[in-house]
Amino acid sequence: MQLPPKVTERAFERLSEIGAAGQGQALRVAVEGGGCSGFQYEIKLDAPADDDLVLEGNGERVVVDSVSLPFLSNAVIDFTEELIGARFVIENPNASSSCGCGTSFSM
């Protein structure tokens, strides 16, 4: 059973700080072939498309295209701030392994 990804309150708060909705944009989370583990995440600000899954919170939106959706079933999209920097991260229960940088994974 395919469950939609979840977005944490912290991720929506960061989008609000960025002002994405005010620019007519959302955080796009996509999965592409490539990276050191076979698949990689692409995370960027983008305009929503008609066939995107739209997740809303705090007046902000996160969108996932229909091709990426099965790879992100039940994943958690979060925002983290660490000594090495701040970034959006994805906790993906579908990934059998991932690289050290957290941007690529295999299934």
TrEMBL record:
PROSITE patterns: HESB (PS01152). This is Iron-sulfur cluster assembly accessory protein. PANTHER family: IRON-SULFUR CLUSTER ASSEMBLY 2 HOMOLOG, MITOCHONDRIAL. Residues 6-102 form the Core domain. InterPro entries: ATAP, ATAP_core_dom, FeS_cluster_insertion_CS, HesB-like_dom_sf. Coiled coil: none annotated. GO terms for molecular function: 2 iron, 2 sulfur cluster binding; 4 iron, 4 sulfur cluster binding; iron ion binding. GO terms for biological process: iron-sulfur cluster assembly. It comes from Primorskyibacter flagellatus.
